[in-house]
Amino acid sequence: LRMEDAWGHVLSHISQRDLLAVERVSKSMKKVARREWSLQKEVDMQRDFPKATTDSEYMIALIDRLSPSLSSLRIGAPSAALDGQRSHHDDFPSRHTITRSVIEEISKRCLRLRKLAIHRMVLTLNALIAFPMLPCTIEELTITICRMDVYTEEEGRLAQEAMTKLVSSLPQLRRFEILGRGACYDHFVLDERVLHQLSPSVTHINLSAGSSLKLADLRFIKQRQLDSFTLQRSFISSVDLEGLVNISPNIRHLDLAYSRNISDYSAISSLQFLKTLNLSGNRYLRDEHLDTICRGCPAMIEVDLDHCDQLTSGGLVSLGLLHSLQRLSLSGLPSVNLVVIEALTRCIDLARLDVSFCRNVDVTCLSSLLSDFPLLRLVVLKGNSVDGKLVSILRGESILPFLECDLFEPCIPVPPPIPVRPPLLPLL
């Protein structure tokens, strides 16, 4: 066994950050380390080189070490939502910038790149214009909570043209995601002009681009078979929803949060393979819709119904039909009460429950939660007044390791002060 082969075996077990340190030992070790760099298939800048996200030259130097056979590149920190924490308040950074030089270096070095994920970075206009240069081998493109530096309509048009050219040049694209809220994407417009260029191979379309998303229908779906579909804050109608179900009956993940123009959600009941469903913020979701969905989609494991104001306890008890349910969010629903909690006891796999700001969830409901759900690991009770001493007692008697709530101490009546006779005035 040659010494170089032995070193190669040793270096294959160290981190990418340590490979940089090995390069500084000697010229021979630099050669060995560079050869190990050429074998890397996945690189996560935030995990292994956090300083690179704030230094474009450092990032370019790292990309220059990569092999053309690199398959996955992640730049920036994922949002909390991607880690399962469901946060809507991810801050996009101000100093973490991707420039045109970075995109050009990726295009030059990563010739077989399959996955590109950009999280919480600032994309300059020149970087966006360079997007069509990215390798045509990309199969998964994810842009999450990024900020696009496009401050005028003309700059927005240039960014849109660049995105259109990019997606039209990716014949193997399977996943296309642009996620974010508010003014993240500024004057960039995501509409049919971009989405009509998606390859027929795309099976995952996840779009939540705040006010940049301009969609009034789903004609861009055409005849593609989707596995995952997210379209938040759009203006699609009930007819579009029926068309989506007819075109892609095998959807497993559906997110139509804040779809203000949908008045009938019953069509979702035809998605018998549905696993996760997010209908939060939909004011027209009614009890009969939820009952139909629960009967038609018994395999669901995650449901989000936050702030669906028209749902009553009579409709929410239908959730008890989902025996495989693992994660449920009912935040902001005043109709959640003990009857609903008792109906959920049939969901024996329930591990996470969010009933924050549900004012009818009282101590009796809490006691039932801690005693009747064997696999429950997290209960979110933010915004509900819960006696801290009682929570400590209940938690000690159960296997629940984490209860997220706003605690208060029970009020102890304070006796009125005893009147004290004032001292006598001195004699003059």
UniProtKB/TrEMBL annotation:
Cellular component terms per the entry's GO annotation:
SCF ubiquitin ligase complex
Q: Which SUPFAM superfamilies match?
A: RNI-like
The biological processes this protein is annotated with in GO are: SCF-dependent proteasomal ubiquitin-dependent protein catabolic process
**Per its UniProt record, what InterPro entries does this chain match?**
Leu-rich_rpt_Cys-con_subtyp, LRR_dom_sf
Protein's name according to its UniProt entry? F-box domain-containing protein
Q: Which organism is it from?
A: Pristionchus entomophagus
Q: What is the lineage of its organism?
A: Eukaryota, Metazoa, Ecdysozoa, Nematoda, Chromadorea
